């Protein structure tokens, strides 16, 4: 729903999961992981919106 494109959504999720993997050891509370991933997805999408188009 954020991207409007299935392939862009897949790229967004992969990017968010890669960024989460980097911070994995710092995430102490397992219940907070889902919220952290959601926040990363949102911020990644916003940064993609702000990028200048080629």
Record the SSE blueprint.
Elements: H1 6-22, H2 33-50
Helix pairs in contact: 1-2
Describe this structure in words.
This protein is mainly α. Helix content is 65%, strand content 0%. It contains two helices and no strands. The radius of gyration is 12 Å and the shape is elongated.
Helix/strand order: HH
> Gap between N and C termini, in Å?
23 Å
Would you tell me the structural class of the helices and strands? mainly alpha
So what's the overall shape? elongated
> Uncertain regions: pLDDT < 50 for 5+ in a row?
none
Largest sheet: none
**Quick check: average pLDDT?**
85
Percent in strands: under 5%
Radius of gyration: 12 Å
For the secondary structure, the number of strands is: 0
Q: Give the proportion of residues in helices.
A: 55-70%
Helical stretch count?
A: 2
Note the quaternary state here: single chain
């Amino acid at each position: 729903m954020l991207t409007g494109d299935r392939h862009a959504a897949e790229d967004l999720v992969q990017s968010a999961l890669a960024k989460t993997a980097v911070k994995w050891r710092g995430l102490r509370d397992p219940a907070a992981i889902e919220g952290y991933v959601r926040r990363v997805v949102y911020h990644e999408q916003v940064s993609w919106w702000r990028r200048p188009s080629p």
